[in-house]
Amino acid sequence: MNFSRQLVSWYLTNKRDLPWRQTREPYKIWLSEIMLQQTRVEQGMPYYYRFVEAFPTVFDLAEASQQEVLKLWQGLGYYSRARNLHETAKYIAGELSGVFPDNYKGLLELKGIGDYTASAIASICYNEAVAVVDGNVYRVLARYFAVETPINTPAGIREFKKLAAEMLDHNNPSTYNQAIMEFGALQCKPKNPLCETCPLNNSCLALQQKKIGVLPVKLKKGKIRKRYFNYLVFQNEENTTLLHQRTGKGIWHGLYEFPLIETKEQLTAKEFLSAEEVKAAVGENSTVQLYNEMPVVHKLSHQHIYARFWLVESGNLSTEAIPMDKIEDYPVPVLIQNFLNEYEPSDY
């Protein structure tokens, strides 16, 4: 039995019962694929259900506001996925009459859809013979064939894409692609793979060469950037506060947060409060209290954020102030949401 047949046979016996496997509707497959990029199935599943309930069709998603979409996405991270999802929904609904392209090349032209996602949708929905290459596929192929080319280099991407295409079952690409991804997720896991019960263990080169623990090879990322965030949490007798929307190309674009002052390093309370930027931001008649002496460390892929929250008792705020109990209507970063979950009005 060859490689592809063994994988398909394993899959038909061991596959998980996932909601997007009950359909070939491109809208729902697209939703699931975007959500599962850099996200575990267990984490993404509740979001999938919520999106399908709130936006049953691509037209419903297109008609929603970006704020509604980001709020529903809140906590899933990598928010550019949500923004691209929304933009693409508007394009499909408005320009394509709600009909998704039915081939890899057409799908690849849509915003937020790269090689992997286009391959997945084209093969699963339309049974087009295009190979998927995600983290699971990299791992299975690297171990089975003992490929040591780093997977996060141009040469590695080309090599694994070619190898994946060679292994593809052209008669049944939909099932095969799902099989190899599921195999990597459940059997050939990153840590503690189930080699003893693996149907491919007699022919797996990494197992024979004792390289399971070092494959696939991935070059280390650059130095992690450290950032120091100081959030000003305003409150007054009217129980209102200030939120600002993040703009620009940085992290959390489109999300809301308390007024932010970023410093180059962590300052003492005295140093922070004596800074001219802080004085100007809080005003002359305000009382400022540090909420958390130890900063909250929020780790992102290329940066670590050290956040402190400063409680600011102020007089009348600007007309842009919102009631504290309305913050839940706004999409905010997890860092802000975690603060809101633990803080009590009495803290002020």
Describe it for me?
The chain has 348 residues and is an alpha+beta fold. The chain folds into 2 domains: 3-214, Hypothetical protein, domain 2 (Endonuclease III, domain 1), CATH 1.10.340.30; 225-347, Nucleoside Triphosphate Pyrophosphohydrolase. The chain contains 15 helices and 9 strands. It has helices at 3-14, 26-35, 41-54, 58-63, 66-73, 80-95, 104-108, 115-126, 135-144, 154-167, 173-186, 205-208, 269-274, 276-282, 334-342, and strands at residues 225-235, 240-241, 244-245, 256-257, 260-263, 287-290, 296-299, 303-313, 322-323. Strands 1, 5, 6, 7 and 8 form a 5-stranded mixed beta sheet that branches. Strand 7 (296-299) and strand 8 form a beta hairpin. The termini are far apart. The relative contact order is 0.11. The model has no long low-confidence stretch (mean pLDDT 92). It catalyses: Hydrolyzes free adenine bases from 7,8-dihydro-8-oxoguanine:adenine mismatched double-stranded DNA, leaving an apurinic site.
